Every structure is written in C-alpha cells, then in structure tokens.
C-alpha cells in the first residue's frame, strides 16, 4: 500500500488520482519492455486432441500424439494404459471401422518408440465402442521392467501353491504338488511349510502374454524367461508361520517390494498372522491386494462370512481401504488404474485346483506398475540382503540397487564393518535374475561378483555405496515411533530388534521424550545399536520388534 511520498524534509500523502496514474504508467512501461524483449516470438498452440484425432490424424495431431505417447511411456517406466474413443467434452465411443483405423495409426506411432500395443478391454458406450489398450516397450536382454510382489498371509493359506500354479502354468492336485518346485530345503518339502525367503518369477511379453515355459523336468529356465519378457513380476515368497516372523519382516523390509499380496484361506478365514502381516505392509506403506484361495472346497456360507470379516477389517480406522471384489476384466482395469492411490484394495477369489479366476489375477499382475521415480543419475546406493560363495567366481552379494547406476569394474565402498569402516571393492560381474549384464539402474534387484573380498567379511545389512557419498556409519539415531502393541510399559534401556531396510540388529533406547510409553503412544526416542554401527538415512521406515511387532516409525536424525 502507498503511504506517502517522502523527501528529505516533508512527508505529503498521495492523492488517489496521482497513485492510479503512477501505477498505470508503470504497467505500460513494463508491457513495452516485455514486447521489446520477446520480439518476434510467436507462441504456437498445441492442437486439442479429440476422440477422432487417431482415426485420421493431421500432421499437427501426429506430433502432439507422439509427444503424448513418449511422456506416458517415460512416466510409466516403459508402459501405460491408453483409451481409444474418448475426448474432452465429447460423447464417448467410435464405430468399429474407426477404432480399427485408430488402432492401426497408434501401432505405427508406437513402433517409433519400439513399443507394442495390446487390447485390454472393449466396452459399449452411447457413441459406439471404447477400447483400452496397453502400450509397452519391447525390451532386449536384461533390460526388462521389474515389479516386486511380497506374498504374505497365515500358514496354510496356499501362498507357495499359488506361486507354483502361476509361474509353472499347471494346476494343483489339491495335495501340494505345485508348491514342491518352490521349496529350497528338504525340511520344507517334508513339512510343506516355507521357512526361508524364496523367489519366483512370472514373465510377460510386450503384448501382455505369459512367457513362462517350464522344461521337460518341470523347472523354469530363468534366463529364457527374462530374455523373452518385457516385464518380469518377481514374487518374494515369505513364511506364514509365527516362528518365522523375523524372516517375513526381513523379506518385507530388506527386499523392497513394490506391492504385497495378502493370501487368505477361504475355509480358515482371517486368522493367526494375517492381521500381523497386513499391519506390517500398511506400516511400510506397501500397497496391498488380497487373494482368497481354496474357494473350490469351501462351503458358500463360510466363504461369505470370511469375505464379510475381511471387508470389515479393510474398512476399519486402522486400514481405511476401499475393498473391491474383482469378478470381471472391467474390475481388473479399474483396480489396476486406481491401485497406486493406496485407497482401493482389490480382492480376488481363486482356486488353484479348478483354475477359477486365475486369468483375472494374471491380468491384474500384468497391469501393475511400480511407478517408482527414476533415480539413475544420483550416486549409487546398493543394500545387501544375501551373500553367496560361488565356486570359480568367489564372493557374490545380492540385493536391491536403491538409486544410481552401477556398471562392471566400478569401485564401490563396502561397509560398515564392526568398527564402522568402509573398504573399497571392485565389481567384476553383474547378474539380473541369473542373466549376465553390464549395468544395473535404480530400483532393480541384482547380484554382484566382488574382487578380493571374503564372504565372512560381509553380513546382511551392509551396503555398497558410491565413494562420492562419503559414507559414515552410525551408532546412535533418533526415531519417531508409534507403539502398536505392548503388554506393559516401554522405558529407557528397553531392548528390541530394529528392522530398517536390510538392517536387522538389536538396539536399546537410551533416551525418550516421555518417561514411559504404552500401546498407542507416539514419541521421539534415541536408539543405540548393541553390536555394530550401521549405515542409515534420515526418513527410512523402521520396525521395532520383540517377538511380535511392537512399534513402527521413521528415522528422524543421525547422531555422529
């Protein structure tokens, strides 16, 4: 606001007319300066795309469509859904001939980006038909798009059986035939219960077709699957038994899944560890979808009771999800497109023996997109979740490349050891899903062969980072925690296991904002690792566990 016009001696108020005149003069001179600066620049309008733009595209339409397709593929990590037959402010629908012409032009344009077009669903509208298509880039070698899905649920829910049926394309016999191919240990085959973190893959081609083809011995050739696939869904098969909860928590934190598939046996219902696993996935912000199995052997009234209880739990204040029962391809598309918002929770009802609704589940997994932002240009950071000693190769570490790009012969800092030091190591080989490759980008899982490093010197929870980050190990940190369940009070000197990424170590509370905390309380606490220092980042999610889950939270500050 204008208060007055001050000179050295007197302060006289402006009259309203003189203020208005001064502002107008200032505006005119500013506009003249802008005209002079812009000169002969002409801003060209982008043509508005209509539902018929693809039927008979002009030159301008084609440029705008190519730009749109490019941005959709970049945003969706090489794939995206696109709708033919709709336009802003127009009644949806095109004739069959127009749709065929539009599809032909779209395929020609997608060939520019080496992408394939496949029809997902077709529906009738007032102006004709509307088609939704999947655009997906063709991939060569080990450059496939990857989606990681953690499979959780109570013991005997049918997790390993479903993965055996999905990945080997052979129905179960009702007595656990299909799960035999997934087990890693003899005691798992004997008991029928998973005790370790097992991996299996399901490959999809450029047009969404499944490329898994088991050999004569019934085993999958992972190299062949990854060569033929443009997208690979990696299932992280976790243990359901309460005895193996620490392994399941490590699978959810250390393997960095994009989604969680919660399995529920229709005949048993929501029992045992089901709620515990659902709570873990929600605490780690992993989007969850539910698969209800064994519907072929379950009486209709028991199935109805199970679904009612499941919907009640999903709608409860702790979950705040919108359950969506998937019964058709329309439901699959709606569920897949709204799933990332984390409010919609698709519920599938399937049978591994009869194969009922398995096609819908496969189509849903095909449409799932991680949409994780590309962080390839940042300094590399790789978290180790397992170590191996391979004859003739040496020490091999596997894990997830959280950010950056790593190439063969790169030098990385490996650590921290028990004293908190980092040593420089050279990468002599990279494999992705058992396929050799020369580089790995952000958010991809892989394994590295290391030069001159003993396996005994590496443990789970260590990281390999770029020397540019100048990594420092941390003994103490501050975390904001929320207590989910504890029978008594938690005070200073309380000890429990911290899970944070691939870190799994006992830590004690050395200081707290409050004197003691109980179930449902929130506080900022200062933790100290008991055994060795770790490499942490502010903002990382952590789980504080003693037996069952006790608290969840976030790392707020590192204390050097």
Provide tags for this entry.
560 residues; alpha+beta; seven-stranded mixed β-sheet; globular
Question: What does this molecule look like?
Answer:
Strand 16 and strand 17 (423-432) form a beta hairpin. This protein is α+β, with helices and mostly antiparallel strands. A seven-stranded mixed β-sheet has the order 7-8-6-9-10-12-11, sandwiched between helices. The chain has a six-stranded antiparallel beta barrel with strand order 13-14-20-17-16-21. The protein has a six-stranded antiparallel β-barrel with strand order 22-25-24-23-26-27. The two termini are 50 Å apart. It has eleven helices and 27 strands.
Secondary structure tally, helices: 11
Strand content: 25-35%
What is the CA-CA span between the terminal residues?
50 Å
Average of the residue pLDDT scores: 87
Strand order of the largest sheet: 7-8-6-9-10-12-11
What is this entry, summarized?
The chain is of the alpha+beta class. It has helices at residues 16-38, 59-75, 96-112, 159-168, 186-191, 222-228, 245-254, 274-283, 300-315, 329-338, 358-367; strands spanning 5-6, 11-12, 79-84, 115-125, 128-137, 145-153, 198-204, 231-237, 259-265, 288-293, 322-325, 344-349, 381-390, 394-403, 406-407, 411-415, 423-432, 435-437, 439-440, 444-450, 463-465, 476-483, 495-500, 503-512, 522-529, 541-546, 548-559. It contains 11 helices and 27 strands.
């Amino acid at each position: 606001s204008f208060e007055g016009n001050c000179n050295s001696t007197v302060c006289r108020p402006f009259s309203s007319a003189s203020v208005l005149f001064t502002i107008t003069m200032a505006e005119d001179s500013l506009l003249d300066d802008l005209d002079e600066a812009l000169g002969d620049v002409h801003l060209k309008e982008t043509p508005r795309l209509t539902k018929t733009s693809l039927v008979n595209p002009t030159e301008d339409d084609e440029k705008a469509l190519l730009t749109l397709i490019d941005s959709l593929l970049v945003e969706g990590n090489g794939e995206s859904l696109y709708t033919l037959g709709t336009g802003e402010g127009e009644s949806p629908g095109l004739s069959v001939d127009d749709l065929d012409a539009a599809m032909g032009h779209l395929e020609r344009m997608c060939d520019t980006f080496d992408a394939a077009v496949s029809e997902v669903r077709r529906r009738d509208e007032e102006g004709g038909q509307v088609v939704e298509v999947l655009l997906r880039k063709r991939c060569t070698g080990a450059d496939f798009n990857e989606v990681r899905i953690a499979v959780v649920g109570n013991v005997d829910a049918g997790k390993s059986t479903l993965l055996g049926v999905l990945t080997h394309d052979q129905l179960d016999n009702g007595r656990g035939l299909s799960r035999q191919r997934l087990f890693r240990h003899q005691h798992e085959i004997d008991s029928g219960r998973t005790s370790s973190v097992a991996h299996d893959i399901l490959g999809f081609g450029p047009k969404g077709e499944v490329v898994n083809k088991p050999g004569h011995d019934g085993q999958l050739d992972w190299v062949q699957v990854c060569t033929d696939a443009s997208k690979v869904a990696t299932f992280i098969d976790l243990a359901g038994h309460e005895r193996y909860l620490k392994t399941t928590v490590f699978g959810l934190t250390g393997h960095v899944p994009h989604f969680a598939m919660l399995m529920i046996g229709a005949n048993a219902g929501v029992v045992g560890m089901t709620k515990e696993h659902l709570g873990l996935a929600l605490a780690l912000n992993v989007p969850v979808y539910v698969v209800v199995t064994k519907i072929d052997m379950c009486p209709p009234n028991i199935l109805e009771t199970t679904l009612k209880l499941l919907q009640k739990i999903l709608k409860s204040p702790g979950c705040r999800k919108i359950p969506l029962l998937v019964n058709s391809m329309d439901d699959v598309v709606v569920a897949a497109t709204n799933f990332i918002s984390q409010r919609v929770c698709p519920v599938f009802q399937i049978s591994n023996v009869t194969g009922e609704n398995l096609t819908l589940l496969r189509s849903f997994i095909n449409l799932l997109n991680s949409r994780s932002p590309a962080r390839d240009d940042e300094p590399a950071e790789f978290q180790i979740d397992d170590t191996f000693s391979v004859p003739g190769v040496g020490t091999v570490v596997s894990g997830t490349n959280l950010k950056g790009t790593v190439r063969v012969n790169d030098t990385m800092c490996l650590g921290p050891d028990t004293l908190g030091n980092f040593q420089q190591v050279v990468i002599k080989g990279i494999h992705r899903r058992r396929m050799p490759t020369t580089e790995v980008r952000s958010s991809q899982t892989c394994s590295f062969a290391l030069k001159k490093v003993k396996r005994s010197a590496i443990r789970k929870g260590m990281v390999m980072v770029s020397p540019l980050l100048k990594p420092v190990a941390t003994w103490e940190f501050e975390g904001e925690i929320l207590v989910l369940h504890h029978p008594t009070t938690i005070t200073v000197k309380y000890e429990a296991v911290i899970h944070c990424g691939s870190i799994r170590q006992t830590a004690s509370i050395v200081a707290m904002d409050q004197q003691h905390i109980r179930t449902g309380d929130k506080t900022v606490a200062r933790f100290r690792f008991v055994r060795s220092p770790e490499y942490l980042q502010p903002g990382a999610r952590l789980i504080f566990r003693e037996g069952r889950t006790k608290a969840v939270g976030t790392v707020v500050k590192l204390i050097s």
